[in-house]
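RETRY 2/3 - previous attempt timed out on the joint model. Re-submitting the same 511-residue input unchanged.
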Amino acid sequence: MQTAPDQNTLQARLDALCASRREIATWNAAYEQILATLNHNGFFENCLSEGEKFPDFVLPNAEGRLISLSETLARGPVVVSFFRGEWCPFCRLMLAALTEALPEIEAEGATLLALTPETGGLALTMKTYHQARFEVLSDVDYGVGLAAGVVFQVPKLYRAQLMGSRTNLSIRHGNGGWFLPIPATYILTPDGIVAWRFADIDFSHRPEPSDIIKALRSLRMTA
Amino acid sequence: MELGQVRYFVTLCRTLNFTRAAEQCNVTQPAFTRAIQRLEEEFGGPLLFRERNLTQLTELGRSVRPHLEAMLQASEAASALAAAKRTGVPEHLKIGLGPGIGAAAIAGAVREVSSALPGLKIHFEESAPASLIDAMLTDMLDCALLPDDCDLPERLNRWTLYEDQAVLVLPPDHRLQGQDTVTARDIMDETILLGERCGGFAQKLGQTTGFSLRLQRCNGAAAQILDLVSAGLGIALLSNRLRIPAPLLSRAFDEPVLARNILLTAVAGRPQNLAAANFIKLCRAQRF
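RETRY 2/3 succeeded.
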């Protein structure tokens, strides 16, 4: 597939959004604090990486059914993507891009699972908003995010920023811990091994759907 | 943050002893100490005071402990259910239902847990909030649905599941059957059946309006009240979440609106069995 011109990539849209947010001084300070905190504490060493086994899980989906990773893997590779939530404009851009890319992901024989710590029906809100056909799972109390090593506690400034915009994560998550996942995306082989990973402490950085499709394609070629 | 670090910290909270906690986690003490230090770096301060004969949680340690315990349990419940689906270990799920709270809203979540865990034994207990709370604290129940107007001890975790509104239940030939909605004035001359275990909507109506209502008390649950409505003894105010069997009719009651929030409750910090942990997750994930 041809790489799209720069301004049409997901990352270009994310960068534009980030640049506009950074003009707000309080937002910018909160954003910088997240980057500085996660950079400082060696966050990446804990994230699952290529070659490691992704822990099997069962989680509720947006429609109130339990979805099992191993049963999904029985159908082929799985793309597991962590999202912060319905409130996050960066996640909305990424979900829109994934919704658009889903036919190509499925054409590679893969299943997409989007995980969010949001509860109280917000997974369904997110799914309905995007008219997404992929599963949106509630990672209640961050259990799978913790097992994948992608969860961090939201630093003070960002917490205040969210509260200021009436985004109370303790209500949305039903957990007063104020944790979030970094926007990590994993491609798992049918035996549950991480074949490809995108992980970045910067929540405005997301994997390009074309890169996910490329990785799935090369996985199919080597299978 | 990493699963192992959280597991070590939670073990250390229970033992308050580095040597014993490291042994329980099957790890050398230096590796254990390093993992705790990494977690402290991540939280930006010491989680424990390390004094010669005494290990104690700092204020920061105390504040993060319940959240890390919940995360660890969630992680274990998600992977253990995946394993149990393969091995089929029998499990119990014991759910308490407060006054006038039916199982219809949560039945889908029970079905999901049950299909993931074949052989699951499901147990419902309908009772007053105080006795359900006692049963949870003494480990006789896994969780309970309770109205938000009861006294809940600090030790209980609680999540609002839905708002419960009163509907008026009528026999099929009742004079109000033609109305879509009913107000307090419409039922002033009616006999209202007041069940002790039916959600207290009729008492609330009396308190809110100040009307003197014709109440017929009976010490029964919703099922008995419905039988009495069928027999023509009176009409009843019951939760809109209950299934009203035909030929009985239900009508929206909109002046005043009688409502209460229904909470899902469970003992904080206590490890839940696999069925209960996943049932609670399913309920919390949904909007009812």
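The interface with chain B takes residues 37, 40-43, 46, 55-60, 64-66, 68-71, 119-125, 138-144, 146-147, 149, 151-153, 174-177, 179 of chain A (CB under 8 Å). Closing ticket.
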